[in-house]
Amino acid sequence: MRVLIVGSGIGGLAVALALRQVGFEVVVYERAPELREVGAGISLWANALRALDYLGAGDAVRAVSLPMRQSEMRACDGFKVQLTLSAEYFEQQYAVRPFVAMVHRAELVAVLAARLPSGVTRYGFECVGVEQDDRGATVRFKNGHADTADLVVGADGLNSAVRAALFGPQPPRYAGHTCWRGVGPRPAAVAPGYLGEWWGRGRRFGITTLPGDRVYWFAVLNAPTGEHAADERSAVLNAFRGWAAPVEELVDSTPADRVIRNDILDRPPAKPWHVGRVGLVGDAAHPTTPNFGQGGCMAIEDAVVLARRVRAAATPAAAWEGFTAERFKRTAAITNESWRFGSVAQWESPLACRLRDGVFGLLFPLVGKRQLPKHAAFDVGPL
Fold first, then answer.
1. 69 vs 58, 101, 190, CA distance in Å?
2. What is 29-74 written as a DSSP string?
3. How far apart are the first and last CA of the chain?
4. Domain count, the chain
5. Per residue in 351-380, pLDDT tens?
6. Cut 0.90: pTM above it
7. In which domain of life is the source organism classified (predicted)?
């Protein structure tokens, strides 16, 4: 069987590795002209690290990541510690190490891309349409090229061209808040292996360390959709002025042209994810808000499941049906819970925030130990 994959992000490359490992011919098409550094930091929880092990890439990914050792939740603009958790607790409870690791997205993509033979990934191919019949599925590209295969995988993200070809225009859902992200030098006050999230009114700030004495940070603010500033770094500094150190130091030390801004978007869980031979994985199928750090992790799980289903199924359509049946419930639960969590985290009312912070201060030590591993302890199983 020959498979075309549209998109060479985390999900697309993981699918390519998985399908090649079970014996299928794969071609990956990417609209960008070359492999380049995009994005910022992402978390790889134990569920994703296990899945990467099944793909033979776990050790290589661990080599470019940094294990989380301590996690904090803070309220009152970062001045009040609500919860401190040690990674050692989870690693002992679930017999997995590390339980969560942090990696720069570009470095993760580079590791996965390097495990594919030269020529498998073809750059500069923007998908503009997909057609299919009883003999195969054809992907058409903006440059005039077309390619036909037995099965097509849309791994081209939230605004997937493959999704649009299958189901027509489907605008994503705006969560009501925008997010800035950046990577800068690690301040001396932030220990390696630290992961923290600090809450205020209608805004929050996250910090996590990366290899190479770097820190990935994100800043979330309630705002109308589509807003942008001429100087995004200054916009972050203005929104988080007076927060606990080292918030302003982190933002100020990040080059202005390296501060990324994106609105937080997802899609309410819904089927189908495929039509005939053509289907979707990762953010193209089940985009989630980033509150649990599971978006990339779920895409890696998808790769393992899809490879198993394609190998076992009598037809491409049957493979997609089995894939959706196996993956929908889990991904929908994460998407829905992440949406609810983000809504509470972004409350603006002073009274509601005082209530939230007070309740969380009492419950977080118990809830944190139960909720954090809820999705991360999942094992997708081998190929």
1. 19, 9, 12
2. EESSSS------EEEEEHHHHHHHHHTT-HHHHHTT-EE--EEEEE
3. 17
4. 1
5. 999 998 888 777 666 666 676 678 999 999
6. yes
7. Bacteria
